[in-house]
Amino acid sequence: MASTAPIGVFDSGLGGISVVRQLAKDMPHERVLYFGDSANAPYGVKSPDQVQRLSFDIVERFVREGVKAVVIACNTATSAAVNELREAYDIPIIGMEPALKIACDRGDVPSDPHHIPQRVIVAATPLTLRERKFAKLMERFDSDNEIFKEPCPDLVEIVESGRLGDHDLVMRTLHGYFDQYDLDRIDSVVLGCTHFVFYRDYFRELLPERAAVIDGNEGTVRHLGVVLESLGGLAPEDATGSVELANSDPSERIAALSRELLAA
């Protein structure tokens, strides 16, 4: 049976709006409630216990609002809280992880039985890269590929402060993180934080043309759709989709920035 109940999407701040954009594009009949926790951002430098507590507070809010599923549009919160949230609630909880598999699978050529080792930089928050969840993901691929972990906390702050359009600041920050690598030998950069998806054009400017820029948003939304379809929970095709934005920071600056990022 179809369901017009909303889908809850949350993030440590504004980065998850990049997931909402993908969701609205790929599942246009769904109602989406977005909650950004900018008052407590960034999550990536907090302890796992702190992130868990904040995540539970947000999901409890969504449950009171009658959501049919929750998307944790935050790699950090997924690392710290997804298992505990799934144990506590009986609605689908969809998490995110850096799209390392997609990056490494680029070394599999159908006409060649031999895997071509990939050199991959995973850009993410410090907590995402420290957590056991990412270590287990990396263990699946690091024997056949060369994987570099690059924490980029300042990229979160630039989005949250509304300075994404400051080209000089952004490029200076990216060079500060990535000039240590021989980028001509890098096959791909994985954007392991939803905030970083807003930097796609900047990464394209930074990287050689042969290097791929990869994020997990499309795969996450696809997985959500599969799960809801299996439960008969998709919205009917004649339903009108919508996006409602909320944030723990009630300022007009954050509200305006949220609308701007959604429309970008």
From TrEMBL:
InterPro entries: Asp/Glu/hydantoin_racemase (IPR015942), Asp/Glu_race (IPR001920), Asp/Glu_racemase_AS_1 (IPR018187), Glu_race (IPR004391). Keywords: Cell shape, Cell wall biogenesis/degradation, Isomerase, Peptidoglycan synthesis. Provides the (R)-glutamate required for cell wall biosynthesis. GO terms for molecular function: glutamate racemase activity. This is Glutamate racemase. Its EC number is 5.1.1.3. Belongs to the aspartate/glutamate racemases family. Pfam families: Asp_Glu_race. It catalyses: L-glutamate = D-glutamate. Transmembrane segments: none annotated. Substrate binds at residues 11-12, 43-44, 75-76, 194-195. It comes from Bifidobacterium santillanense. Gene3D superfamilies: 3.40.50.1860. It is an enzyme of class 5 (isomerase). Pathway: Cell wall biogenesis; peptidoglycan biosynthesis. The active site is at 74 (proton donor/acceptor), 193 (proton donor/acceptor).
